[in-house]
Amino acid sequence: xxxxxxxxxxxxxxxxxxxxxxxxxxxxxxxxxxxxxxxxxxxxxxxxxxxxxxxxxxxxxxxxxxxxxxxxxxxxxxxxxxxxxxxxxxxxxxxxxxxxxxxxxxxxxxxxxxxxxxxxxxxxxxxxxxxxxxxxxxxxxxxxxxxxxxxxxxxxxxxxxxxxxxxxxxxxxxxxxxxxxxxxxxxxxxxxxxxxxxxxxxxxxxxxxxxxxxxxxxxxxxxxxxxxxxxxxxxxxxxxxxxxxxxxxxxxxxxxxxxxxxxxxxxxxxxxxxxxxxxxxxxxxxxxxxxxxxxxxxxxxxxxxxxxxxxxxxxxxxxxxxxxxxxxxxxxxxxxxxxxxxxxxxxxxxxxxxxxxxxxxxxxxxxx
Length: 368
Known about the structure:
- By secondary structure, the protein is an all-alpha fold.
- It has a single domain (89-363), classed as ABC transporter involved in vitamin B12 uptake, BtuC, CATH 1.10.3470.
- It has helices at residues 2-23, 27-49, 57-67, 79-114, 126-139, 149-169, 177-201, 204-215, 223-242, 244-250, 254-259, 264-286, 292-304, 308-332, 341-364; strands spanning 170-171, 174-175.
């Protein structure tokens, strides 16, 4: 009888402990999210206001409030300022937010699938494959899917590149780091050669567009393009968040995840499609922007840990924040010039990637 009571007491104690763990707020994650949201809001106001035509923060906020039906004295009365905000600045800002979030989530998903922090759409050639698909649609004047044609071909190019990298780098249930990097080099080289060939074969207009894709730029973003990126990115990100718990199990190893009910190969195939969608839709409208998917998820993982639900959620905020500030620098570093945003992200991401390779190599004891 005493033994039964003691067992019952232990069971109740364990249940109470579980309830307490569930009720415990994820303080660190909430702090990081709050800081990211504050930085993001400041970045949106700054990016909307700074440029060749300076616009005050009050006018930016006032215009936004007026757009949602809140009349205020701060809203700009000058028609030129309104047109600048709603036809040039706001579409560009929203595009930067969506593309940054999409690339960061794509990087997080790719790292979960490959089980390696070095996996990133730009590094392993997915972005180059998407750019090659988009460039082919431009050069040959394809319009199979109407306004969605370039985005569709960018998706197909990214999907093919992802499948090549996935099938080559996976061996005996694990990803070989050296093979992953070498495959990425090969895919990037092939895509670069394809882009050069299309440059040679295309006319002046298509040549200029292809060069734009290779450098990456948010200049000339339009609301119609923003809508496409918003819809596809939102759907793909929602699916990725729904798979977060399965990514957690996958990190335990294929065999363990399979025993716990995860359909490993199906999960990987769905994830590959998600990565191609998220990367392709960004590349289709703003060109190749490297290292966002490497830097953001890795930093988030270092701060809050490897749990993928919070990792992906915070990657959305982190990617959006990084891109809005990168675009702000691209427009303001050189007066009366618009620097390629892909160049700026590479200047930050390149040294970070070098540090990450050295860190992983040191932890692994060398790659023989």
